[in-house]
């Protein structure tokens, strides 16, 4: 077995904060940095050791801050650079670390670099973005290729002034930077990375990290007959110069001992993933693979029906992410939620009132028993769920959701049936569900904004705060929060086995139970999770059935020896 080096970020648990929706300190309906600072003690009390702040940079907010107009400034409603300096200091003062989102595949079209680039074909920054002439087909102007953007439509936007197209893999307001240009790369490192490393941040979550090198820009194969634009993720991800670019970035990061976790979509090949995260390759410390969160999604994410997956598929996705550390010097991550995903209880457990708490605890137990760095998204520790099905389409604010709904309307000439299906999918999978205000209490606005606030929160607060809020859960021993705290302590107490151990799925075909083992130099544990809403006999696979076992933890108080309750999870230590 390869023995990998113990770095601080391996044993860490990261808590992800979405600034707009965490806590509003001044009553304008938008979360802010002072709100985060005011709850650092709460965050620390969960038992996490690092916080990750989603983009708080200055931005026109077309894609909630993933469209950055100035890396060296803060979006004014969130606060100032001085507030960030205070947040960094206050986080460190509590013995925690802080990482930021590094969004450098693209900028906002309002960034000064793009404003210059678009101003003329001879501008010195013209080549900082990706410009191409039109193609003419039967005299009709067409974009340079047929690539489909991540938020629908073509990835190319025509620019009248200079009569060329520019590339944008996301919104038209998010032009892609040209990483082929060395001067551009140096400017990125200085402005987006060093500016904040010098201010003491401990690392970055690196947005869409595998898209910097685009490779050949030819047409993508036709996979959607009815559309002019075709899925091209395998073309614009993992291009030929990725290794070189990440190596360069790493030289800077290393000087600060900064950690990195890269977002790595469209990369099903585990060997490619390992190359990104193997210690000796000096690229990234770890990545977010999409295997687990993509479960049940359609070819175009929302082209599916709710819960369109089986438990064996879910388990096999987790197995793929766990397996990359077997006999390698690579490192992995564990996560079920983030700001781009609907809530895990709704997707993988059950948000029916009687099952919300049990399934939230079971998922917490599962996550805490898996190897790798663990990431928790704000509200997950409370068992927050998707917003109600009854909510109208006007409550969906995200470009991804609203563009999809518009696209379906346009493609089907407003077919009622098609729009109903689109909404059903969004009710289940939209990014909006993770972006509502955190439920702090039962007060006005669920305690997200001060009580005397006039402005409504930018997204509607959940109607179920009475049953799920941070204040109540902090004094309730039977709460999802209390169970997360207990599980994170259990994870620390059994760090070798639970964080670093070798994982094996002991019963991959079982459609009801998830049974996996963890081993570490003679120590062994087995986790059993009942993913159904009824009690199940505890039938352990032969490999472990005859070992002497001791119950380490169950998600249910007073659990029954031979029987698992609905959505119960357990960990046994084996002799
Ligand atoms: C990443 C972010 C997502 C954003 C996209 C474009 O996937 O997580 O929120 O929309 O990049 O920057
Ligand atoms: Ca505010």
UniProtKB/TrEMBL annotation:
Transmembrane segments: none annotated. Gene3D superfamilies: Glycosidases, Golgi alpha-mannosidase II, Oligo-1,6-glucosidase, Domain 2. Residues 16-411 form the Glycosyl hydrolase family 13 catalytic domain. GO terms for biological process: maltose catabolic process; sucrose catabolic process. The keyword Signal does not apply. Keywords: Glycosidase, Hydrolase, Maltose metabolism. One of its GO terms (molecular function) is sucrose alpha-glucosidase activity. Belongs to the glycosyl hydrolase 13 family. This is Glycoside hydrolase family 13 protein. It comes from Lentithecium fluviatile CBS 122367.
